[in-house]
Predict the 3D structure of the following.
Amino acid sequence: MVLLEADKITKRFGGLVANDSISFEVKNGELLGLIGPNGAGKTTLFNCISGAHQIDSGRILFDGKDITKLNSYEVARLGLARTFQIYVASGDLNVLENIMVGCFMRTSSTAKAKSMAEAVLKELELTDIAKSMMNELPVAVQKRVTMATALGTSPKLLLLDEVAAGLNPSEIENIMTVIRYIHEKMGITVVLIEHVMEMVMKLSQRVIVLDYGKKIAEGDPSSVVRHPDVIRAYLGERYAREYAATRPDSGA
Amino acid sequence: MEDLKNAFDFSDFPRIDLIVAGAVLIFLFGFPLFPHSSFAMSTMIQFLMFSLYAMGWNTIGGFGGQVDLGQAQYLGIGAYTTAIMLVRWDTPFWISMPVGILMSVIWSFIIGYPLFRLKGHYFAIASIAASLVLKDIFEVWEFVGAARGIEILSMKYSPPDFMRLIFKEDIYYYFVILLFFIIGLLILNAFRKSRLGFQLRSIRDNEDVARSLGINVQWAKMKTYAIATAMISATGAFHACYIKNIEPEDTMSLDLSILIALMAMLGGSGSLWGPIIGAAVLVPLKSYLKALLGAASGMVGIDLIFYGGIIMLISAIEPKGIWGIVEKRRRRRRN
Amino acid sequence: MEILAGSISAGLLIGMVFALVALGLTIVFGVMDIVNFAHGEFLMIGMYTALLTSQATGMDPLLTLPVAGVVGYLLGIVCYTGFVKYLLRGPMVAQLLGTFGLMLVLRNLALLFFGSEDRTIHKGILVNRSIELFMGVRVPVTKLAAAALSVIAFVLIWLLINRTRIGKALLATALNAQGARYMGISTERMNTFAWGIGGATVTIAGALLANFWSFTPYVGLLFTMIAFTIVALGGFGSIPGAFVAGILVGFITEIPGFWDYLTYLSGQRWMAKVPMSSFKYTGVYLAYFMIMLIRPRGLFGWKT
């Protein structure tokens, strides 16, 4: 069953075509990777899907509903949650309260929102820092909190925008466990933008590659990294060789 | 129902806060029973009124981070509605005050809709512009007494008149406004913990993130703005009965709007106690400076120089105000 | 017909002065994204500078412009280095209320020193003279001179910014502060310079206005609002925009008076009951509101 269907999405900023007629779909229960060089239009695509930008042409269906013209808060209420790339909460909300804001989408009762948020904290093993402020936490934990906040809205689909950026290898390992948990145990469909190739290769069931606003490749991770356009535009010859060397068994 | 329970629930504050708050409350109830000067009495009434104004501002300005500098227009709407209904149609305060609130809320939606499409500086300046337009209209509108304003002649009534809120002794006014003050505090406490309160704090942090969490930012701001204006308008209605002589210049001026915002900010915007602390510092300061230097010595406006200086200091050194300093210390001690 | 021509020429002349009033605000905003609520107070200080200097020295008020300019330049620099600099670290709320505090202090200091009486400049070679422009349209010479000098000052500042080294550095900081920093331009120095220029232009405008505008220490707020409207209309940070918008706002302030004249002519007493000229500046506030809603970027804006 298809959860999200993007049909020829085009978004222009003045003369720049940030998303050029991009079509793809996300199946229910899938974990999809979205890669591409800086400025390829990945985050713009997230913004278009989540309703932060209104697209110039094309159509977006989510869970069988046309969400092309909807605002981001309306899209969120349908069950599409996202995280943001550059976001450090500086306000006076602590971790628990941050997550409660998300939970309030599903309930108007403070007590219920609190118990929902506590449940999310428990699932992501964040209970110990419930009362901490965001800016007191290390970056890796902040990223987990932003994911928890999005999960507070009980989404069907979660868009993750570079949650591993700026993390060290062990932290990346950790965040991968969290994403797997969200995907497998919580049963939430995930689309992730990521530059850390190792993570994309290990996690994704399918990968889409963008370059200059266009979709240049789509497929399972091992075939995408062999795609000549992807190598030219993004990965480079070296990565392809190294990848082939580490995974000699993985394909023709 | 849950909101009502939340309003009376202060359990998330440390015990020391509650002890201080309890002591202040006992003082507020006990104060009139002890000998006091009429000057002290009027200062206390002013303190309670400005606490309420600042509490109202704090919902949208403090929790929501929307620097509204036009709240005096709602004070004016509340005050004028009560004064006009009393003078022209002899309407009791307890009817005219809700009417004033209703008018304020309607007006807040009319101008709030365009206003909240703006952000930051643009919003602040537009909020000033909107309130100045209303003030200019009131200054020439004959029905509301134009620039002369409206006077409530207390000798026409037989005080103490609890229906029309006309009293000879300030002590009656004191207890009425104290009642308002407590209700205002409970409303703010419920707001702080309500869904809307959380949403506003999220909006102040980052509007894009707030939207991604399903918050209709525009509507949440407008609802909060309506709550703020209702509180300010109700207090404005009291202002009319207490001062008895209202003019556009002293009920709707920009200086008043700034003063309201300043009190909340000085005390600590976005906190429950902040507006009260701010009013407790500034109102006595204003009264005593006026009495001390006063118009008698030709030193007009010297209190405003102090105000301006305080605003400058606060905004350059500690934008989170007095309560912000307290919180920072507590946090440091805990870590 | 003459009345229409008179209204138009009056609007045009005052509009040119308004443009100079707004110039400093748009420069400061363009360079550092901060709005100065004390802008009108700078203008008020320019007015008193002109008045007091000409009273003290017997100079013609028009000759006090350089004095006003120097006072404004220093005032701008002192305000920036002594105060505004510290606001930049804080949140927007602090920046807004901070310059508001500055406004209160300046206004009430003026009240303390100069009193609240209405002041006008009575002396001067141009005062109380008028000149016939065309078709019987007479304008006071003071206004004509103020407009002409405003345009000259405006052009000089425009040249300073577009043709000189320091001006180009200022422009670079406005476009991209970080990029300019990489090129060795000190943001701090440029901010200070912007405040100096901003202060100087608006006090000069004040000195020009003082020749025909009666004023008190409270005059600032009106001009702050006028300047905000012009900057919003012309586009935040745009210098040519400020010029065109200044003239448009000049016209806006003349509309109510013209309307009153029309209703007077038409003999509709009920319409003349509330003179529209009481709303002379309400139109300015309304205009700000409308512009922000319809086109937040203004006519020539590049900052949103």
Remarks:
- Chain B has one domain: 2-259.
- The two ends of chain B are 37 Å apart (CA to CA).
